[in-house]
Write a structure and sequence with these properties.
The complex is a heterotrimer of chains A (about 575), B (about 325) and C (about 350). Chain A is about 25% helix and about 20% strand. In chain A, strand 15, helix 10 and strand 16 form a beta-alpha-beta unit. Chain A starts with about 50 loop residues before the first strand and ends in an 8-residue tail after the last strand. Chain A is an alpha+beta fold and about 575 residues long. Chain B is mainly α. Chain C has 11 helices and 6 strands. In chain C, a hairpin with a 2-residue loop joins strand 5 and strand 6. Classes of the chains: A alpha+beta (about 575), B mainly alpha (about 325), C mainly alpha (about 350). Chains B and C meet through helix 1, helix 6, helix 7, helix 8 and helix 10 of B and helix 5, helix 6, helix 9, helix 10 and helix 11 of C.
Chain lengths: ~575, ~325, ~350
Amino acid sequence: MHRVRTSVALLGLAAAAACSSGSTASAPSTAATGGSSPATSVGFQEQHKGGTLKLLAKSGGGTLDPKINYTLQYWQLYQATYDGLLAFKKVDGEASFTVVPDLAEALPEVTDGGKTYTFTLRKGIKFSNGADVTTKDVVASFKRIYSASTPTEGTFYNGIVGAAACIKTPAACDLSKGVVADPATNKVVINLVEPDPEFPYKLSVPHAAILPATAPPKDAGNVPIPTTGPYMFASYDPNRALTMVRNPYFKEWSHDAQPAGYSDSIVESFGLTVEAAVTAVENGQADWVYDPPPADRLNEIGTKYTAQAHVNPLTAFYYLPMNTRLAPFDNVKVRQAINLAVDRNAAVKLFGGTQLAQPVCTFLPPGFPGHVDDCQYTKGGGTTWSAPDLDKAKQLIKESGTAGMAVGIVVQDDEVNKAIGEYVQSLLTELGYKATLKPISANIQFTYIQNTKNKVQISLTAWYQDYPAASDFLNVLLSCASFTPGSDSSINIAGFCDKGIDAQMQDALVTERTDQKAADVKWGQVDKAVMTASPVVPLFTPKLIDFTSKRVGNYQFSKQFYMLVSQLWTK
Amino acid sequence: MLGFAVKRSASAVLVLFSLSVLVFLIFFATPGVDPAARIAGRNADQATLMQVRQEFGLDRPLPVRYGLMMEHLFVQRDLTSFVNRGVKVIPQITQAVPVTLSLVVGAAVIWMVVGIAMGVGAAAWQGRAADPIIVLLGVVGVSMPVYWLGEVVNLLTQSRLHGSVFSWVPALGYVKLTDDPAQWALHLLFPWLTLAALYAGIYARVLRSEMLSALDEDYVRTARAKGVSERRILIRHALRCSLIPVVSLFGLDFGALVGGSALLTEVVFGLPGVGRLTYEALQNLDLPVILGTVIYAAFFVVLANAVVDMLYALLDPRVRRA
Amino acid sequence: MAAVTVDGAPASRDLPAEQALPSPGPWRTALGQVRRNRAAMASAVVLVLIVVVCVAAPFYAHSVAHTDPFTSNVSGTTLVGGKTVPVLQPSTTGLGLGVTPLGPTWDVRHYFLGADNQGRDVMARLLYGGRNSLLIGVAAALLCCALATVIGVLAGYFGGAIDAVLSRLLDVVWAFPVYLLAICLSVVLLTSGLTIGPLHVGAGSLWLPVLIIAVVYVPYVARPLRGQVLALKNKEFIAATVGVGASDLSIMRRDLLPNVLPTVAVFLPLMTALSMLTESALSFLSVGVQPPQASWGTIINDGLGLLYTRPAVTLAPGIAVALTAVVLNLLGDGVREALDPRARLRGAG
């Protein structure tokens, strides 16, 4: 997922958008603070129940419809409101990547060589409007993926039998062979065209949430749809606030999949600048800020409020896609030269320092399935990046004969992205190019750099995982299929298409069906091959800083959906 | 007079129409503004993109799209944002208007009082030390970038002196008048003063020169000759006549500000007014919101112009024939 | 003129329709009068100083500070009080979050005003930024006045259909609050650049803000000029030339233009101040001058992210903008009083 910021990167002060994120003195998946003991305890702790949790965000996250919204901001809140058949375990740390049964009684029975998934729906679960959750709702929810044009309909859910036609003509959608329900036994069978080992992950994200069959077939906008989780949405005004209150029909059915929440209500207010929001948390007027704190407040948070800052590494990376179809980057030597020349430490510094980001040299982030420490572009060699090699880079550029060409760098116009862009511009100038920087609004840059019509040579962007699978990075971002000339939706920004590497990726995907370990090794090899072809410059993997108020306890960080909002307590 | 009013209104409507077409064309001619991919979401399938295009009418010819948008804006009044799906444009504007009005009305009161006091003071003390000082103050007020002044005010009140002198200053933001009048005023105090600093300077300068030329007029000399006191001449004669251009100027400024010209102040102080709404929509290239706010803004500018023109026409028949 | 600003943008519209014609040979008399105006002269001196200092930016950067204000210096070091320190200092206390640029050293040879977030010398950038700000201010004011004169004279002289079209055009631009129009144009042009016939202005070019600012202020100057031309047209001496059978062009050039030029001259310094303020506001909203180019507005913008830790980065360019605008305004007032005391825009004071 590309981390979405619906809000505008206003001004330096208001914005500092992608800016920063935190770090911590303690190890990742830090223990919570505020005088509470963390995740180790199992089960609900009655004594901490009650109160209102006050969250702040610079702006609203757009539509509230869980089938449409594709922002981290609301996906985080959907964890406490909506459920799918499956869910990522809602716990702190590494275990949060595990898929557990949610509305289904157990993990699905997979048959037919991985093409058929059979679920049994739990009984006795109700929506927040009092209606029972039935197999009819499950079938309708899958249909709704196509009728509402869910962003991922063609990427996550195109493998369901009948989906291809549904995507083309939603009005005539027929899923009768793809999602089959038997109300008598409460069983739901999902048939796939091809085996898909990542399908359970795809069923665990909000786009596969089970909603009442009565939900409107189109985007519901800011009208809340009834929920199944511990909270429901009471009101939503994208310019003011989003209010969540307890779902009166909720009873905890699985502490792993959907634990009961602590606060009686959760309010996320919009409109304050991040600067003001951080001050409000410092003063105890609010409990948490969604947006990363501005650069000039980091030092203060890191020294005066150490106990309230939680820093966690993300499975994500910032990178510079180089357009392999435009000069000078159509020359592999030039691409390799840039990879050699970029000082990752400089980028890290501009992002907020070594506690907030870690230099990377591979496509897959450290700790991700398939990642192998390897670095082809560091001075003096080694498996991790240590320093740039400018001499070698200049040599390669000389050999390529491209020096003197004009190169445009397109970045988002918020503080941090612009700063890194200025650094890259300065570096390219040093390497002998006529480099210009083009900062454009954060909201349009991501689609702008994808469209080949805009002739973007090099850009800066970031990618955040949707689910923990190597293919979500390599296959999504660099396969030939991800490249569509002339379209705003062509996520293979480098326009990289290498038949050999594509075949390697297909092979790894097939291996995944039977042997994850062997597949991971293959993904590691793909990573290496990709880095040799050098379509992108990986810069660093960012860390996220959560700044909570003094009174907040039980901080838990899911690697999948970040801070577990329902688990914070204020008492 | 009626004919003049009709002609004036017709030309105002024409201006508003051309403006909306202009904005529409400006934004649809730009590369990267096609909202389909942003509406569809990251990494959307090409077929999904087609669906979105169809649903939002983005595949229709430009004039049809313009017509549809205007119909949704004025007839059905349900035009929705491209960025925040499901969010209607008109309520967004109607919610932002009270914020902008609060800011502008408060600031206007301050700048009129201070500006008039400064202008009269400078005119009364002409030739003495106070006059150039007031003039200089006015020029400084006019010359400071308002957003910069706002940031400096924020620096002092929110950070540097927040621990001491300004501990009573609340965090940035807006509190509704109906929720808590005291907090409303407190939150708006510094935005008012910042915006007023600029305009007080302008009005002081205008008034001073108007008064000086008025004091040169025959009727003032006559009054003086009659032995009317200087104070009375200043207030009753010179000020009264000088206020007419000031008031008409005020009409124009007020219209433009309510229309969204206070955007820098709103942005700097985090006030969710019309100016900020427009600015954010521009940053997002959220065309429906841009169209809505620009037409709204232009409406106020045009209205203010028309009102001022008609007032002049009432006072001066020659204008009607021009 | 500049005096009347809406959040910095003028609202004052028309010149008093009728005004006395300047006496013959007005320019020399006017110059003498400006010379006698102490405030104006002092302003002129300060202005010249500012210009000289800014023009000397390369000298300062290369020969005094030995720095390149357009190259990132993220990992660089400098000398402060004889000690070598990093330009960007990572926090070492507590959780070690954040990186803080060097603050002002008050040493003209090394980071006099400190560093920005790229580790560049703020003082050197301030001077280079001043060059761009002044350049844009002057160029935009000249272009705006030139366009406005052409439009005003054509519309006023010919009347009829030409006047109707031009006046409607002005009305449309007029109805758009200045900043909104400027931001609209900037947002669009900054992504695409501007191509008019064979002329192409790149997205990062300084000419984009110049063009945008010039265009948005055209009605503010063109309207009063049109009014003035209308008034002149009815004067006897013009009617006489028409009677003699002079061509339109020669009437406009020989009779109208010399009569409106003093008014244009009055507008110029005021428009320059206004253009400069507008440029800084656009750059502040990051839709003006684009990095790595600098202007006073972009430096203010750069400094906002450091406002709480390194306020000098924001304060210095703000003071520079304000000071320049003050002297331009005072100078403008002087020129107006000298050239045409009654040629005051409603609100120009």
